[in-house]
Every structure is written in structure tokens, then in C-alpha cells.
Amino acid sequence: MALKTPFANLEPDQIDVEVMSAFHLEGRYFSVSVQLSDENDEIGHSYLLKVLFDGKTLRYETLLEVPNLILAHVSPTPIDHVALEIGGTTHFLHGTAHATSGTPDQFFNKLYHQEGGAVYLYGEHGTVCVAEGHAWRTIKPIAKSFLRAMHGPRNGPVHVAGDDGTLLRLAGNGWKRIPLNFNRSINALQVAEDGVVNIGCEDGYCFQYFEDDLAAIEAPERDFFSICEFKGKRYWGDDEYGLYVQKRLKLAPLKELGYGYAMQASSEFLVVVGWKEVFLFDGSTWVGFEFGYNKGLHAGIIDMSRRFL
């Protein structure tokens, strides 16, 4: 049964709709977490959805609905999902089974699943936890910075980054600090299979790090929030234009989506999260869908021939 939302007395333009995370599950199925809030973020309501989308047909079912803000989710398999609520409650879904767990006292706002590996939780005070069953084990912190991005190649170590130029590599059961000699906040992080670490910051400060060498990447003066490899190319998302493709040590504009908040890739799709939109790119063609709220959550197909040209 659907929960009663707290937005009955608000007009649609007083309700903020935001997609937090999106993943390609299999075939034409995707998982999407959607957050609703009022203009002052005083009330919230969220959904974790399983979406069927083939470019022409759009349907969804609700996997989880909470009277709170979902900050992030991950989908390790097509039937396994982990969602994080503000306040620290985590939801573990396996098919129709549902378990919940608390987190340590720190504030956490992100989840990360390493392909073929573990699920991690991270946030303030340099704190990272790893999922063990339906519980969280804290990895001993060595930094006090707020952590904002996490990534690791399938066959390589996980890295985490954040404020004050913090970059850490997981070595065994502990962290190793990688000195970058700058104090900018790192918002985006991607580690290639060859060990090259790609770093996105605010104001167009973007870098590649490899074996103690830090090289600048030429980029527009915007804040970068996501980096992802797909079909042999590396894509970067910012908060104004949308999506760029990397060409050597330069970022070239690719698609004006307005926002590239988060990206995930499968073998078939690059999945890009905008504000309230989810965009899908197969290497040649763009399609997308978006969410809105008017007496209830609704979704619609984006006509990419008329918008986001």
C-alpha cells in the first residue's frame, strides 16, 4: 500500500523532485531512487523504483517507499538493492525480502558498490563503512575530511576522496593516504583499470594522477560531479552544461543535459542522472525519462529530438 505523502497542501511548483541514483539492471530494466521535498527541505518523501524503459514504453513499480529522504542507493544485482535514508537507516532489499540496519553516529550521504565486490557507505570525518551482511563495519579512519566520491576498478583497490584534497587508497583492511599537495574539494573520482586516477573538483580543476605524477586536465570553469568510462571513452559531468568526453588531457563538450550529477555504466548503457531526469546513451543514441509530482509521483518519456539537443 502506498504511503500518504505530506504534500497534499502544496502546489506542484512547491515540490522539488530529484533523482538521486540510477543503475541499469538488465535488459530494459533500471533502478532509480527519487527524492521529493518542499522548498525548505523540511519535509521529504522518497521512492526506490524498478523502471521498464525501452525508449517508447515507460512503466515502473515501487520497490521501496519511505516518508523521508533517500540520499543514495546502489544495485549490486538485478534483485539486490541497498538504499540510504537521511538519519542513517539503510534498507537491504533482496527480491521481496527487506531488512533494515542502522549506521554509526556520523553523517553518511553516499553509497558505493564496487563491481564484483563490496558495498561501502561514506560521509563525514573521513569515515567509510563496508557492508557485512545487513550490518556495517567501520574501516579505521586516517583523515577527518568530508568524503564525497568513491571508486575502484573491478580488479583494483577502492579509492575515496573528499575535502581538503583528500585521496585515500584501500590497502588490505586499512587506508593509505595519497598526497596531492592541494586542498580543493574533490567531488568526482574514477580509477581506470591501469591505475590512473581521474579527479574532478570545483571551478574546472580536473586532474589525472598516476605514480606520484599529477597532470592538469583542461576543462571549463564549472563544478564537476561525475566521471565514468563507457565503451572505451571517459565521460565527465558538471553542474551547468552536462556531459563532456575526455580527449587526452582536455574535456570536450558532448551533450547539453544541464547537469551530470551521477553516472553509472553497464556494457549496454551509460546512465546519466540529471536533476529529475535519467538519460541513457548506448554510444550513438540518447533516450531519457523524467519524474514529476502532481497529486502523486509520475514519470514521462523525454522527447530528445526537442529537448537537450
Structure characterization notes:
With 309 residues, the chain is mainly β. 0% of the residues lie in helices and 57% in strands. The protein contains no helices and 29 strands. It has a five-stranded antiparallel beta sheet, with no helix packed on it. A hairpin with a 5-residue loop joins strand 2 and strand 3.
Output the keywords.
mainly beta; 309 residues; 57% strand; four-stranded antiparallel β-sheet; 0% helix; five-stranded antiparallel β-sheet; 29 strands
- Briefly note the structural class of the backbone: mainly beta
Q: How many distinct helices?
A: 0
What's the story with the biggest beta sheet?
A: 5 strands, antiparallel
Element pattern in H and E: EEEEEEEEEEEEEEEEEEEEEEEEEEEEE
- Biggest sheet, spatial arrangement of strands: 25-26-27-28-29
**Portion of residues in helices?**
under 10%
Oligomer: single chain
The residue-averaged pLDDT reads 95
Alpha-carbon distance between the two ends: 39 Å
Radius of gyration: 19 Å
Summarize the structure.
The protein is built from no helices and 29 strands.
Which helices and strands occur, and which strands form pairs?
Layout: E1 15-26, E2 29-38, E3 44-53, E4 58-66, E5 70-77, E6 80-85, E7 90-94, E8 97-101, E9 108-113, E10 119-123, E11 128-132, E12 135-139, E13 147-151, E14 159-162, E15 167-171, E16 174-177, E17 186-191, E18 197-201, E19 206-210, E20 213-217, E21 224-230, E22 233-238, E23 243-247, E24 250-255, E25 262-265, E26 270-273, E27 277-281, E28 286-293, E29 297-301
Antiparallel strand pairs: 1-2, 2-3, 3-4, 5-6, 6-7, 7-8, 9-10, 10-11, 11-12, 13-14, 14-15, 15-16, 17-18, 18-19, 19-20, 21-22, 22-23, 23-24, 25-26, 26-27, 27-28, 28-29
